[in-house]
Write a structure and sequence with these properties.
By secondary structure, this protein is α/β, with parallel strands linked by helices. It contains 12 helices and 14 strands. The protein is 39% helix and 14% strand. It binds FE3-S4 cluster.
Length: 388
C-alpha cells in the first residue's frame, strides 16, 4: 500500500504509541482488502460501546488507547450505550462502573458523548463527497444515501482507529465506481404510505437485493427514507441505496438488473414475520433515535389522551434534554433497546414502527414484535382495548 510520508511517520511511532497501533490496524485491514492507499477523513462515529457487547477486555483496550495518547483528529461521536442515562433500565453495578470507565476514556480522547445512532442530527453531519469512517449501519447508509458522504460499514474499533489517525483505507464506498447503482427497483402501482411500510420495503430490499439499488419511487418524506435505509441495512448488508429526491449523487443505472416489488409481497412479508398489534405490552419508537418531529407527535398524542395506557418507550440521543411529560411515556436517553437489558422490563410483545428493531428484538431478547406506523402505535397506546 502506498503511504504518504506523514502516514509512514505515524506507523513508525513518531506520533506516539496509540497512533502507531491505530495506524497498524488501518493499514493491515486495508492491505488485506487490497486497498492501494489511505484517504483522510473528516468525521468518525464509533459503535459497539456497550459493555454488554465488548466486555471488560474491550473497555481495557479503549482505555489503553486513551492512556497512550490516542486523540480524535476529526469530528468524532459515539453510538448509544447499553444503559440509559436516567437509570430506567436497571443497572448491574459492575457493568455500570465499566460503562462509566469506557465513557471517561472516550471523553479523554475527544469523542463527543452524543450517545446516538443519528449523529447527523447532532453536530456530526458530513457533506457531499466527504470521506468518513462510521460504524453504525443505519447511520452509514444514511450518510451515503442522503448526505452523499462516503463510508463503509466499519467495525467500532476500526472507526476508533480511524478517528485517532484521521485516515481510512480507500476501498468500497470510498471509490467512485463502487457507488454506482446495479439494480433498478420499481414498485408496481404503489408506494409506501408511512415509515412502517417504508421499513417493510427496506427489509425486503435487504433480503432480495445484494448490490447497490436505485429505488424508482418517491418516498413521502425523510422519516420514511430513514426507516427504509435502516431496515435495508439491518435485514441485508446495504451501505447505499439511491433514493429519488433524497440522494444528492446523480448516477445513471447502466445495464442494471431489474427488480419489481408489489404491495401483495409487502403484505405477505408483514403477515408472515410479525404479530398483530393487539395484545402488545408496550410501544417502542426511536430506532434509529427519535427526531424532534416524531417526538412532537408523541407528545401531542400523550396530551390528547391524557397520558398513555401502556408504556411508550422512546429511544433518544444522550444529548436530548427532554424529560417524560405524560403517564407511561418513557424516554430512554443515550441507549439502544436492542443492546440494553430490555428483558428486565418484562415485556412479551412490543409494537414498533422500526423494522430494524423488529429484526433484533426477537433475536436478542426473545420478544415478539408487531409492526405499524407511529400514529397507529400511539392511538393504540392511548386506548389498547379499541382496535387501533
Ligand atoms: Fe439505534 Fe439501536 Fe436502533 S443503535 S438504530 S436504536 S438498534
Amino acid at each position: 500500500m502506498h503511504l504518504t510520508r506523514e502516514e509512514e511517520r505515524m506507523l513508525d511511532g513518531e506520533y506516539g504509541e496509540a497512533v502507531r497501533k491505530a495506524m497498524e490496524l488501518i493499514v493491515s485491514i486495508g492491505e488485506a482488502l487490497g486497498a492501494e492507499r489511505l484517504v483522510p477523513i473528516t468525521s468518525a462515529h464509533v459503535s459497539g460501546i456497550s459493555v454488554s457487547n465488548i466486555g471488560a477486555e474491550g473497555v481495557e483496550l479503549i482505555e489503553w488507547f486513551a492512556r497512550h495518547g490516542g486523540r480524535a483528529r476529526v469530528r468524532a461521536t459515539v453510538n448509544p450505550m447499553g444503559f440509559d442515562l436516567d437509570g430506567v433500565i436497571p443497572r448491574d453495578p459492575r457493568e455500570w462502573s465499566l460503562q462509566e470507565r469506557l465513557l471517561r476514556a472516550l471523553s479523554v480522547m475527544g469523542f463527543h458523548l452524543t450517545l446516538t445512532c443519528a449523529p447527523y442530527e447532532h453536530g456530526n453531519r458530513p457533506g457531499l463527497g466527504e470521506h468518513i469512517a462510521w460504524a453504525e449501519s443505519s447511520a452509514v447508509i444514511y450518510a451515503n444515501s442522503v448526505l452523499g458522504a462516503r463510508s463503509n460499514r466499519e467495525g467500532g474499533i476500526v472507526a476508533l482507529a480511524a478517528a485517532i489517525t484521521g485516515r481510512i483505507y480507500e476501498w468500497g464506498m470510498h471509490l467512485d465506481e463502487e457507488r454506482n447503482p446495479r439494480v433498478r427497483v420499481t414498485l408496481r402501482g404503489w408506494r409506501p404510505r408511512d415509515e412502517a411500510e417504508a421499513g417493510l420495503l427496506g427489509a425486503l430490499l435487504g433480503l432480495r437485493v445484494r448490490e447497490v439499488p436505485l429505488l424508482e419511487a418517491r418516498l413521502p418524506g425523510l422519516e420514511e427514507a430513514r426507516s427504509l435505509l435502516a431496515a435495508a441495512a439491518a435485514w441485508g448488508s446495504h451501505a447505499l441505496i439511491h433514493l429519488e429526491g433524497h440522494t444528492p449523487e446523480r448516477r445513471a443505472c447502466v445495464k442494471c438488473e431489474k427488480v419489481e416489488v408489489d404491495r401483495a409481497e409487502l403484505t405477505a412479508f408483514h403477515e408472515e414475520h410479525f404479530d398483530d398489534i393487539e395484545g402488545s405490552d408496550a410501544v417502542f419508537i426511536g430506532c434509529p433515535h427519535v427526531t424532534i418531529d416524531v417526538m412532537r407527535l408523541v407528545e401531542a398524542y400523550a396530551e390528547k389522551c391524557g397520558g398513555f395506557r401502556i408504556p411508550v418507550l422512546v429511544a433518544a440521543p444522550g444529548v436530548c434534554k427532554l424529560r417524560p411529560s405524560a403517564q407511561n411515556l418513557v424516554i430512554l436517553r443515550g441507549t439502544c433497546p436492542v443492546v440494553a437489558r430490555l428483558e428486565s422490563l418484562g415485556f412479551d410483545k412490543i409494537a414498533t414502527n422500526s423494522l430494524k428493531a423488529a429484526f433484533y428484538l426477537p433475536r436478542r431478547h426473545g420478544i415478539r414484535v408487531a409492526v405499524a406506523d407511529a400514529k397507529t402505535l400511539l392511538r393504540y397506546a392511548c386506548n389498547p382495548r379499541s382496535r387501533a
